[in-house]
From TrEMBL:
Keyword Cytoplasm: no
Tree of life domain: Bacteria
Acyltransferase domain segment(s): 9-353
Name of the protein: Acyltransferase
Organism lineage: Bacteria, Pseudomonadati, Pseudomonadota, Alphaproteobacteria, Sphingomonadales
Pfam families: Acyl_transf_3
Record keywords: Acyltransferase, Membrane, Transferase, Transmembrane, Transmembrane helix
Organism of derivation: Novosphingobium indicum
Claim: Membrane is one of the keywords in the record: yes
Gene Ontology molecular functions: acyltransferase activity
Transmembrane segment boundaries: 12-33, 53-77, 98-121, 141-159, 166-187, 207-227, 239-257, 272-291, 298-315, 335-356
Length: 381
């Protein structure tokens, strides 16, 4: 870990906390409240209702929006002084091994639990393996990886065009788009644009706009602006963009919350989700800018947290749901069953990260770089 990454170790801890929020959202809320018969509720089998936990557990999905902010920061940082192919290899080896491993595992769980037949599983499996932008996938969490991959593609294009030094200007253009887009959405909500406006206001709550970055790019730009401020680059302009995109993020989270199960089925106030995201984002930003947690012990913990986060995110819904169902059937109390399942998911994620993921990433990087040198493209200057 470099001196610079030690200064932002708090981001790895925040990322793990976000993954845990998503995990408890799945285990405590979606395991019984989910609609349909092809997700975590189905693999649990006989769910237990945690009615008293709806207020907090139903908000766990905002961990995804926290991920997006962190990605805006970290991906821009990782793009510095890299060729386009180096960036692409780095992102591929970071995302794909765990995605493929846990897609296979989740598919086997779906088959073993009788939730999907081979014929039903196959198209979901193929869509998941290639991050196809339209679901359904084996695990519903794949939509967030599609969104991340689209962001990576944008950054790759910026590097390829030799414009990484113009990120502030590019972010400014995206910020202008966000202002126009959300002003139109709010005008449509108010009835100023007739039927088209009402349709657009409704569409702003859909996951399709979130997948395509139209309503989620504000989170990435918030994180990217924070990185530029952290580095002392065009602080005034980036501070303004941070404030604007943070405000847009509050609106986007509010609209996303309106389509969430906690709001649509249980009457939660979508403003709670927006406020929670806002408070956590400001807290995280303050920690980064103040270099909180750069001590040796904290850095060691943050390193472990960073290794755990991605596999924990991928294992907790389908495999975690299956383990939760097994725990229920042993007669354990519901709370203990959830805690043991969460612990098991964390341990399994750690074992995968250390014993499988890291060696596989190194092997893939070496192989892809050899291919680049010998077959595909020469290394860029």
């Amino acid at each position: 870990m470099t001196a610079r990454t030690r200064e932002i170790a708090s981001l790895d801890v925040m990322r793990l906390a976000a993954a845990q929020a998503v995990m408890f959202y799945h285990l405590v809320f979606m395991s019984w409240a989910e609609e349909g018969s092809r997700g975590i509720r189905a693999v649990v089998g006989t769910p237990v209702v945690f009615a008293d936990a709806v207020v907090w557990a139903s908000l766990g999905w905002i961990g995804v929006q926290i991920f997006f902010v962190i990605s805006g920061f970290v991906i821009l940082m990782s793009a510095q002084d890299k060729s386009a192919s180096d960036f692409l290899i780095g992102r591929f080896t970071r995302i794909v091994p765990a995605l493929w491993f846990f897609t296979v595992l989740s598919g086997l769980v779906m088959l073993a639990s009788g939730v999907l037949s081979v014929a039903e599983l196959t198209p979901r499996f193929l869509r998941s393996m290639v991050l196809f932008p339209v679901g359904p996938w084996v695990d519903g969490a794949v939509w967030t990886l599609v969104t991340e991959a689209l962001f990576y593609a944008v950054v790759f294009g910026i590097i390829k065009a030799g414009k990484i030094g113009r990120v502030t200007a590019i972010a400014g253009a995206v910020t202008a788009f966000n202002l126009v887009f959300w002003c139109i959405v709010l005008a449509g909500e108010a009835g100023a644009l007739g039927k088209t406006g009402h349709w657009l206001a409704g569409a702003a709550s859909s996951y399709k706009l979130r997948v395509t970055l139209i309503s989620t790019n504000c989170y990435f730009v918030t994180g990217a602006s924070l990185y530029q401020i952290f580095m002392g680059r065009s602080v005034g302009a980036n501070s303004l963009m941070f404030v604007i995109n943070f405000g847009v993020g509050l609106i986007s989270t509010y609209y996303a919350a309106r389509s969430s199960l906690g709001v649509s089925a249980f009457g939660q106030d979508p403003a709670f989700a927006a406020a929670a995201w806002g408070i956590l984002t400001l807290l995280m930003s303050a920690c980064v800018l103040m270099r909180v947690g750069s001590g040796a012990r904290f850095v060691r913990f943050a390193t472990v947290a960073g290794l755990l986060t991605y596999p924990l995110y991928l294992i907790n819904q389908i495999t975690g749901g299956y383990l939760l169902g097994l725990a229920y059937r042993t007669g354990l109390s519901p709370v203990l069953a959830v805690l043991l399942t969460a612990a098991a998911c964390t341990v399994l994620a750690g074992l995968f990260a250390m014993a499988v993921e890291r060696p596989l990433q190194l092997w893939l990087k070496k192989g892809l770089r050899q291919i680049r040198r010998s077959v595909l493209v020469p290394r860029e200057a």
